[in-house]
Design brief:
Blueprint: E1 13-15, E2 33-35, E3 46-56, E4 63-65, H1 77-82, E5 87-90, H2 95-98, H3 103-116, E6 119-124, H4 131-144, E7 151-154, H5 161-164, H6 172-189, E8 194-200, H7 219-227, E9 233-238, H8 252-256, H9 262-277, E10 283-288, H10 305-320, E11 325-328, H11 352-358, E12 364-369, E13 375-381, E14 388-394, E15 400-402, E16 404-406, E17 413-419, E18 424-427, E19 439-441, E20 445-451
Parallel strand pairs: 3-16, 4-5, 4-11, 5-6, 6-7, 7-8, 8-9, 9-10, 10-11
Antiparallel strand pairs: 1-2, 3-12, 12-13, 13-14, 14-20, 15-19, 17-18, 17-20
Helix pairs in contact: 4-6, 6-7, 10-11
Length: about 450
């Protein structure tokens, strides 16, 4: 993997799969893996080769969660509209398995999504839910109201039902039966919908670190064996901290290395899907943040400045690993329930600005690499004019200066944007970057450089 700037396997397999457009066309799940030969990364430089195409970036990686408990006020709505959020999952978290979604919830949500220009996905109730209620929601949303909601999930983290919902024997076999009955009822109403599942909690990088049911069965493996014919996007959740019930919040040092786990988790999940189903089913991370708890006020808690630096690198890694949908948790949260939302009640938290930075990133990923463990580097070409955008994330405390080497034709630097403690996704003077032999990336920063 080239990111976080390590030595690269020159025959890394890259999934050649078409990504869904915002119009909601179906993900392609059966295209073959094609080997792409990647060059070694030169030492001591930020290296880009725009001629090595890594595939189109799914527009739905810039998503969030939202729910009826959260409020987008008139004051923060303009900021939300400027964030470039492409998909909203509703309702995020446990709410949907503890309450029945009502038509007015869908109406309010559809209005907000329309104001933000976002696609939507809706999760129907699984715990104490019924196929009839789920089908009724699809009928109301897509047949009666014409919202044409393409993406639907069923339940939330069923892998925790045995410990969190008072049903100690709840396992994957019961889940598979219930999930399938609801899925078939929903599809009977609108065969065009795309189903996301199984929405497992804390999925890891190998079979020893993935959820197991009370009988010891692997949740993901058994779900794929039974329901792969109905699921269109395979979904997992992941929060690296706290580690264990009641655990402490992460430090900056701990969070600075946590993003590397995605270079193991996604390849493992993709190989498992292929092994069991024989297909390359798209992957979604439908809940993700640095902490699953309501931690606030720490140096690396979700409301912190450093959480934004971590998230900038995580997004880059998920893009590189060709994830189809990413939903950050969440769009908004008031301080009394936790600092994990991009917005508090009346202002933006630091991680919001990462979305503003990635709005300027291109649509077609190209090869990038570096040999410095503190640097995340990602590059993409613009779909319209072919402009090259380079995202450089310094996870460490110290400034790093290196030459920026771009293979191929000569390009002109036209824009530089930065997020750090001094700049909130602000445009910088390009004259400070005239010398590509000495590009300085400040400690704990995200910098985007655009060339034409």
């Amino acid at each position: 993997m080239p990111y976080k700037c390590r030595k690269i396997n020159p025959w890394l397999l890259v999934l050649a799969v078409g990504f869904i457009a915002l119009s909601g066309c179906a993900p392609k799940a059966n295209e073959a893996l094609e080997p792409v030969q990647l060059p070694p990364v030169p030492e001591g430089v930020f290296y880009i080769d725009p001629d090595i195409a890594m595939g189109k970036i799914s527009p739905l990686v810039y998503g969030v969660n939202h729910g009826p408990w959260a409020i987008i006020t008139e004051k923060i709505l303009p900021l939300a509209q400027e964030a470039g959020i492409t998909m909203i999952r509703f309702p995020g978290g446990n709410w949907g398995d503890e309450n029945d979604l009502m038509p007015y919830h869908i109406d309010q949500f559809a209005m907000l999504a329309g104001q933000m220009g976002s696609q939507v996905s809706i999760n129907v109730r699984l715990f104490n839910g019924t196929p009839e209620k789920a089908a009724a929601l699809v009928r109301y949303a897509n047949i009666e109201q014409g919202y044409d909601i393409k993406y639907w999930g069923i339940g939330n983290e069923p892998s925790l039902f045995a410990t969190a919902r008072g049903v100690p024997d709840y396992g994957v076999e019961q889940f598979n039966t219930e999930w399938r009955a609801i899925a078939e009822a929903m599809k009977a109403v609108d065969p065009s919908i795309l189903l996301i599942g199984p929405e497992l909690h804390q999925f890891g990088s190998d079979k020893s670190s993935t959820p197991k049911d009370p009988s010891g069965l692997d949740w993901m493996s058994e779900f794929l064996r039974v329901n792969a014919d109905l699921v269109d996007v395979v979904s997992i959740h992941r929060y690296p901290f706290p580690q264990g019930s009641g655990g402490r919040a992460a430090t900056i040092e701990e969070l600075s290395t946590a993003s590397t786990e995605w270079d193991l988790i996604i390849p493992y999940l993709r190989s498992l899907i292929l092994e069991i189903t024989g297909r390359n089913i798209p992957i979604a991370i439908t809940e993700i943040n640095s902490h699953w708890s309501n931690a606030m006020g720490g140096e690396a808690t979700p409301d912190s400045f450093y959480n934004a630096i971590w998230w900038g690198d995580v997004l880059g890694r998920l893009i590189f690993n060709k994830v189809e949908i990413v939903n950050y948790f969440t769009l908004q949260s008031k301080a009394s329930i936790g600092g994990y939302g991009l917005f508090a009640r009346s202002d933006a938290r630091p991680t919001y600005y990462v979305y503003q930075m990635y709005q300027k990133f291109g649509e077609n990923l190209v090869f990038a690499g570096c040999d410095d463990a503190q640097i995340g580097i990602y590059a993409a070409l613009d779909q319209q004019d072919g402009a090259l955008t380079v995202m450089l994330i310094n996870l460490g405390e110290d400034d790093i200066t290196k030459p920026l080497v771009i293979e191929g034709k000569e390009r002109t630097l036209v824009e530089v944007w930065r997020f750090d403690k001094d700049y909130l996704a602000d445009k910088l003077d390009t004259r400070d970057f005239d010398n590509l032999e000495k590009i300085l990336i400040p400690g704990q920063s995200v910098t985007l450089i655009k060339f034409k």
